[in-house]
Amino acid sequence: MSDRDLTDGAFGSSGDFNHAGFTHLDPMGRARMVDVTPKEASHRRAMARAKVHMDPETASAVARGAITKGDVLAVARVAGIQGAKRTSDLIPLCHPLLIGAVTINFEIGESHIEIETQVDTVGRTGVEMEALTACSVAALTIYDMCKSIDKGMTIGDIALWEKTGGKSGPYRRAK
Amino acid sequence: MSDRDLTDGAFGSSGDFNHAGFTHLDPMGRARMVDVTPKEASHRRAMARAKVHMDPETASAVARGAITKGDVLAVARVAGIQGAKRTSDLIPLCHPLLIGAVTINFEIGESHIEIETQVDTVGRTGVEMEALTACSVAALTIYDMCKSIDKGMTIGDIALWEKTGGKSGPYRRAK
Amino acid sequence: MSDRDLTDGAFGSSGDFNHAGFTHLDPMGRARMVDVTPKEASHRRAMARAKVHMDPETASAVARGAITKGDVLAVARVAGIQGAKRTSDLIPLCHPLLIGAVTINFEIGESHIEIETQVDTVGRTGVEMEALTACSVAALTIYDMCKSIDKGMTIGDIALWEKTGGKSGPYRRAK
Amino acid sequence: MSDRDLTDGAFGSSGDFNHAGFTHLDPMGRARMVDVTPKEASHRRAMARAKVHMDPETASAVARGAITKGDVLAVARVAGIQGAKRTSDLIPLCHPLLIGAVTINFEIGESHIEIETQVDTVGRTGVEMEALTACSVAALTIYDMCKSIDKGMTIGDIALWEKTGGKSGPYRRAK
Amino acid sequence: MSDRDLTDGAFGSSGDFNHAGFTHLDPMGRARMVDVTPKEASHRRAMARAKVHMDPETASAVARGAITKGDVLAVARVAGIQGAKRTSDLIPLCHPLLIGAVTINFEIGESHIEIETQVDTVGRTGVEMEALTACSVAALTIYDMCKSIDKGMTIGDIALWEKTGGKSGPYRRAK
Amino acid sequence: MSDRDLTDGAFGSSGDFNHAGFTHLDPMGRARMVDVTPKEASHRRAMARAKVHMDPETASAVARGAITKGDVLAVARVAGIQGAKRTSDLIPLCHPLLIGAVTINFEIGESHIEIETQVDTVGRTGVEMEALTACSVAALTIYDMCKSIDKGMTIGDIALWEKTGGKSGPYRRAK
Hints:
Chain A is 28% helix and 27% strand.
């Protein structure tokens, strides 16, 4: 058996899937973790943002807690940092990498909290998923901690804002 | 020492934090996992939604893959289900619970993919964080799998839509 | 939007998949974690076995170590027990449950090691996947610990031998 | 094969190990996760303490941070709570259980920080390992956050102070 | 105490264990994670296979699902990829490493499904355990998804087929 | 928004926190994972110790088990090695790294068991937290396995004894 190619009977041998540039899919449309071993390790950074929209009363209660000693944002910051470290465990086709730095900052608006995360690494693959995961987990933690007073919150505007390092060149979000 | 109360020197004994209804904070503003042991185990359900906004070309490439054999949404569905099971590991003050069912559905629009998750359990605490986490992880997975063709995607509208079971009565999002 | 059903545009509305009794797939062939919340919690048990085939020299080296103080099987036993506890984390559609007992035993043959695992729980779903996962992880650990002297080992005969509890009645493997 | 007992050739059939009351070892000295399925689920609580000994300068730097806005203890509290939830993942023969509440408090002394954890559950097994693990992880986190200014810290006095619930009756540490 | 060697009273000082080439055991038979720090990082690859034996009806139901839209193999593929990333978490003495690529393919036979996994990395240690773990987790997932229609399935023939990179030279399974 | 700095409204813009050399806190006292990407990867090692104090009867029961076939210390050794690999998952601001070697030894005294761990890596950051975590998890495992016969055990003297590699130079504990 070792001298023949296994063909994936499951998804046919037709190869008719136009995979349209999806690097995480092979020519037959099957998921794969794309090979990064030929890439050089280099310094990479990504910055992402998200917003948790909430009642003005909720936002100001978080702000009051922050000014005195409430832990909402401190807990969300720790959760986001740990979430960044679990990215490849959560996102099936993400490559594991050694995160070199994470910072998470918050800005409290009138009816939202904005989250900004930055992740750095020296590695073969970018850290945009790590920055976005940190945003998402921090946002979910804020939701969890405020949901007893405000169930209507929504999480939105999760987006990559900057990405540097790697061969594809820097990316900077227009708006 | 066993006969005296430890007072948290770290955050003072003043107790001056107005914790404003945050059940995850004690009267002094310190994080805690609120006690659910007095609650009765009962059937609970939550339903949440999210949207991944993308270029129309990206959405139709995902749709084409789905119609033929592309794995983007199948991978995102598995990731979302597994994400639901990790909720208490990701969100620091979330209680562990035994998820009894998870379903995740997708609807592809012209320039977005909508995600809908439903989670059921029999337990002492609600599953809204599990439904929201499933949405978030599925959305991040879609982002990951499409980012080679569209870096400008944003994830938004992550919100709880329904919640039933438990003493506080059903919740249904207005809009 | 809350008043309409999301239909999964990704996989069409045709529902033409004959799901052939696969409870982990919905009528349209999409993965789901089947709902166990209507089931009663009851005592359940499963017993599984596996074999690691190896050179006679390898088997007797393991046996010698076991008789004196080598840790191969002690390490494999711990790994198998911990593997059982991670089953729902590894197998995407497995329900989390609270394992109540795990025992793992080994028998060294002339050119194989046989593994037998038994898992018990009180819960809404069976523990056959936990017993099989414990077998698999214990077998992989034996492979890992012996591979420096024998790369040709194979793991086989991983099978469920007994299952009791639950509404479907007991299962006992014929041979 | 199904009709005979597997005997663990690895550790002999002699059964000569006097297991001396170790419930985690079978009569032949092999590790097992003891069967808790016959036990009734009941409310259980455990309280544990630990101390991180440090230079007076370190302790007062932590105290200053706590009074203003330093995150050392807030981070340690989150880490301890999350550590409690991972206990059965870390300690091989620990049973998984659903933690119902965790609280962690700190007291800053002249040259140490004392940690006190309390864990509650409704379940078939006690939560002393969860309380002790929460102490240990919180202590390690304090060490990690202060090690840039004080490498000589030691962690000690990790002990169970109280345990209630379960058939064996309450335990209260003498001193 | 710092100036003397700790001898492991637990397992005696006799060193009489003939460790027979087991690199994961020290001369006294105690488990250890062998030191790979002196090795050079290099490109490494491993390929493994496994078979899930099943009733012909089960195999053809999986095949039908795959041709239309059933998710059995897509779910197993994701599970296998994620399993590869957890290898060092599951196998106690495995070194953590950064997986650079994973591909998993399936071939459906008359009464079995064959799984083939390939894993690549640039690192100090081989990836055979990762390839074997991916096989095992994919096989367990197939079992889980088909067990409602076929409890008698067995998993077998889990074996390493190729290994390249590292100082020990390439390995290729004979048959 | 992309052209302005987010300031963390949560913790004020005052920057008045004297962070006193805590590298894990930014100038405003907020937790961060400090950036190690500018550092060179180099060989690093750490050695730590801990003691589990217990009744002489407990210590000699462990010793007896060790001499014959009891698994207390074998299980604790495996748990400690696996704990070392989870350090960055447990300690929020710890950097992930690729552990290259772990050894754990035990010495049984009259009324205690001493644990010694050594961890090696080639990386950008030290492994003292890994060595300390291995000690802690091994100690907790010993507690867990002996608690049925001795609830009064305490874990203490967890300390870093040696650390080499990295720019800050070697550290050796005085006593």
